[in-house]
Amino acid sequence: MTLSAVEAAPKAELHIHLEGSLEPDMLLALAARNQVTIPYANADELRAAYDFADLQEFLELYWAGQSVLRTERDFYDLTHAYLARAHRDNVVHVEAHLLPQGHTPRGVPFGAVLDGALAAFDDARHAFGITGGIILGLNRHESQDEALAVLRSAQPWRDRILALGLEGPEKGNPPSKFTQVYDQARDWGWHLTAHAGEEGPPDYIVEALDVLKVERIDHGVRCEQSPALVRRLAEQGVPLTVCPLSNVMLKVFPALAQHNLRRLLQAGLCVTVNSDDPPYFGGYVNANYTQSAAALGLSAAEQRRLVRNGFVAAFIDDAQRRRCLHDLDAAWPPP
Ligand code: HPA
Ligand SMILES: [Zn+2]
């Protein structure tokens, strides 16, 4: 099968939750390996449950699924499987969310989560040439004190973590709840991002920018409810890590054909395309590109712009950005 230009192009993935890359087959295998009981007999039963009314319904199933992850080896295997799969989509740079608060309350050591994932990143760099790292995620429905405790636990890995992120149920949990945590991470030299404007209002995007001082916004699609905010995001070049298939599965948009990806791109925003939680939402990064392109009638130039934006938005230094953009030019020359 010949690949389309967008499928063949080198790409960055900036919004993927490692726990959300857990495929049904691996979930069942880990349940057996760790003797964790789950209420599904086989992968088909699990897949049949992937039908969500909203973010909250998804999160409940997603959190239940994570209960099979227990050991450093599990986190290695999970991360390795995702990176190998991303490599098949010609992803060359990955910035992946990882959520210790999803695991440490079950007695999983903080180090097992981090060391397992980091070792898989080290191996993927050698095996596939994939660069990137970990975005330490925080659960936004938990308290700032709990988030500060996560940061204290992360101190020994401080130099190996790329960025701080914020995820979980958005409504009622505004970014400003985490001001101190973000101040601390900024002092450590971490990059900063936060989920905002997925289900929550445009004000949450403004807070993430003005109070947490994030460099980019995860999702952010609800910015469209505020024309002033759309203009600001365009003028300031704030990237959005958009996840089209996720947005349809979680009913942020009724269908891909109604997604605002193309309008935001035409408004001059630095929109990027990502997969969020691929087995739950029905596709890895290439599927997000090709299905969006088909549903929205994206031109080749628009698709290329989205790919290019991934490298513009990545938390990489200027030399690496130049190399990535050069490699993209070579693989897919500008029109
Ligand atoms: O799309 C999401 N939103 C919030 N939290 C999440 N955790 C995994 N995916 C998501
Ligand atoms: Zn997400």
Portion in strands: 5-15%
CATH homologous superfamily, by name? Metal-dependent hydrolases
Q: What is the CA-atom radius of gyration, in angstroms? A: 19 Å
User: Which sequence of SSEs, written as H and E, runs from N to C?
Assistant: HEHHHHEHEHEHEHEHEHHEHHHH
Total of helices: 16
- Gap between N and C termini, in Å? 24 Å
Q: Domains counted in the coordinates: how many? A: 1
| Multimerization status | single chain
- Which bin fits the share of residues in helices? 40-55%
Overview of this protein structure:
With 335 residues, the protein is an alpha/beta fold. It has a single domain (5-214, 300-331), classed as Metal-dependent hydrolases (TIM Barrel, Alpha-Beta Barrel). Helices cover 48% and strands 13% of the residues. The chain is built from 16 helices and eight strands. It has helices at residues 5-8, 24-33, 43-48, 55-65, 72-88, 110-128, 144-154, 179-187, 202-210, 227-236, 244-249, 261-266, 278-281, 285-296, 300-313, 318-331, and strands spanning 11-17, 91-98, 131-139, 163-167, 191-196, 216-219, 240-242, 271-273. An eight-stranded parallel beta sheet has the order 1-2-3-4-5-6-7-8. α8 links the parallel β4 and β5 (191-196). α15 packs antiparallel against α16. The longest helix is centred in the middle third of the chain and has 19 residues, at 110-128. The radius of gyration is 19 Å and the shape is globular. The protein starts with a helix and ends with a helix. Hypoxanthine binds next to loops. Hypoxanthine (HPA) binds at residues 17, 20, 55, 167-168, 195, 198, 246, 276-277.
